[in-house]
Structures are given as structure tokens and as C-alpha cells.
Amino acid sequence: GMRLLPPHVCAANECVSFLVPLSLSLALAPPLSSPLSLSHTHTLMLVREATHHFVLLTNYVESRTRMAGRITLSNLKGLPGAAKNAIRVGRGRSSRRGKTAGLGHKGAGQHATGSARLLFEGGQTPFYRRQPKHGFKNPESREYETVSLRRIAEYAEHGRLDVSKPVDIKALWDAGAIKRNVKDGIKLLSDGKEKFDFSIDIEVCRASKAAIEAVEKAGGKVTCVYFDKRSMQAHLKPHKFDVVPRRAEPLDRKLRAWYSDPANRGYLATENSTTTNDSSDQTPSS
After folding, report:
1. Of 4, 92, 178, 225, which is the most buried if we count CB atoms within 10 A?
2. With the C-alpha atoms ordered 241, 242, 245, 246, is the resulting torsion angle positive or negative?
3. Can you tell me the distance from the alpha carbon of 194 to that of 196, in angstroms, rounded to the nearest whole number?
4. Is 175 in a helix, a strand, or coil?
């Protein structure tokens, strides 16, 4: 790339570029027969001398610039007055920070802490403790991600979701129907139920009444299953586990009652009915 020269070097080059052609034109000019020839010779000598001095100045500046080289950490420094020396404390009254070193007389201000901690009000009950508490966090609350019948129909039409096989949460996750991380499970919503006509066997954690009716009307089946956070992670990402843990059963009585209700299409209700039928078949007739 082209090297940029300092301004004084550029000015010297401009002067030289102007004086050299002038001196050449004067040197090649024909001699005058008039008395002005003496002044012409004197002018030519002055021009040659000035040109010589400018050439020496340019060579000197270029040599100094070449010696300086590029700007590096070794020759980089701030402008004059950019940095000021700190005032030394405890060096007598004449230094403006003598005696108590600008910290005043006694008290916490003279110690290392310098000031009270944030929100400290001198010992009285601070503001954040005087205010009443609002709300609470329900430990039994569960956060479900939602998937609608409209989205399932769109993914099935485009071939991204195979509805000929049972569709579980892992299949929805792999197809991209679930956009965010799943914490507690998936809830099936009835958005788009008017045009839903796929006979699908789907397994979710929760389902609305309208969604269950729409799926069963199309000839499908809905099963609601329970997952805790650990089993949900193992279900979605089994490659992260050396031994995939079994799916946990609900320990809470309310959850167990919900998944045991046939109206909610809970998986415990299906298992209980299957167990009852097996036991009745094995009972000998009298």
C-alpha cells in the first residue's frame, strides 16, 4: 500500500516540485543582452540555493520517518496532558491531601470499606424488608408446550410427520412441530379441528376436550401419559444417557387421579381396564 507522509514532508515535496522546474527553466533560458542579465543570474543562484536546501530538508525528514517505522506499542503514547499523576496522600498539608489524607475525622469513612453497603439504612429496617410480599410460586404447577391440530395436519400434508405410525412426543420433537424446549410435557389443542381428517394415534401429556373429540371423530386415538423432567429428557434425547431410565409414574394424588380418569384419556385408566379384563379372563367359572 501507499505510505502516508507527515504534513511537513508533503509541504517540502510540493516546494521542491515547484522550484525544480523553475530553476531548470531559468537555467535553459537564453541570456539577456540588457542590464537585466545580472539580476537574472542572481535570481538563478537564489533559486538553486533554495532548491538545494529543500532537497536536504526532504531527505532528512524522509530518513527520520524511515527510522521511526510503523506505530507500535513501543512508540505509542498519549497526547500531552492526557494523563495526570495522582495526588500522593499523607505527605503534609502542602500536598492538599496531608494529615487525614482527605478521608475526614474518624468513623467508617477512614476505614477500608469507605461507605455502607448497598441499601443499608443505618441499622433501621431497610426498605426492601418493610414492603409486604406479593404472590408465591406454586411448587405443583406444570408448564406445558402446546401443539395444535392445525400444525399436525400441515406437517402430515408436507410429509414431515408420518401419521401412519403412532405419534408420540419424540416424533413431534424430531419433526419440528415443537419449537421450544419441553419442560413438563406437551398439550394438544383443538385449533384447526374443523379441517382435521387424519386418523392418528397420538400420545401427549395433556389434551383439551375439543381436541380429543376431533381426533376420535376422524378415527384416531388420544392417550395422555405422564413424564417428569428426567424421564422427559431421556425420552427426547436418549443419546445423552448410558442407561435410559424408565418413565416415572405420578406420585401426586391429583395427578394420579387425573391420569386414571377415562374422560381425560389417561394411560393409567387404559392400563387399569386392561388389568381388570385379564383378571376376569383368568377367573375360573363356577
Report:
1. 225
2. positive
3. 6
4. helix
